[in-house]
Design brief:
The protein is of the alpha/beta class and about 130 residues long. The protein is built from 4 helices and 4 strands; from the N terminus they run ββαβαβαα. It has a 4-stranded mixed beta sheet.
């Protein structure tokens, strides 16, 4: 809602949650407007951070900008709202990440934040 117009920035860190294996729609729309500079992606989701589901979603997100240079990405489990989980569990077939949802409780946590800092320092060493 409050994302600034991406034009004119030399570095953009775009953080979003996943919906259906992709960045949620408003974030996807924003990523498509990025036309230059370095981009670092941060995704939160109920899936395991190293799952095929999360990796595929980050690849999808990285392909949305017009010509930004991907400086790095970070995948982080995030606790899924109980009401959302209840609805998702009713789907047939269930989404691939549902089996990982229990391990997402309490995330992101301090260890996740420290890992994000490290990933940012590696991807954008002149900035962090």
């Amino acid at each position: 809602e409050e994302a600034p117009e991406p034009k004119g920035y030399d570095v953009i860190i775009a953080a979003f949650w996943l919906a259906g294996g992709k960045p949620e729609p408003k974030s996807a729309e924003y990523l498509q407007r990025i036309a230059s500079g370095k981009l670092f992606l941060v995704a939160t989701h109920g899936a395991a951070a190293d799952s095929d589901h999360a990796r595929g979603a980050l690849r999808f997100a990285a392909a949305l900008p017009k010509s930004a240079e991907l400086a790095g990405s970070f995948s982080c489990q995030g606790e899924v709202n109980a009401a959302v989980l209840a609805q998702v569990r009713k789907k047939s077939p269930p989404p691939p990440w549902i089996a990982d949802a229990e391990s997402a409780v309490g995330h992101p946590d301090e260890k996740d934040i420290a890992s994000l800092r490290q990933a940012l320092q590696q991807g954008l060493p002149d900035r962090f």
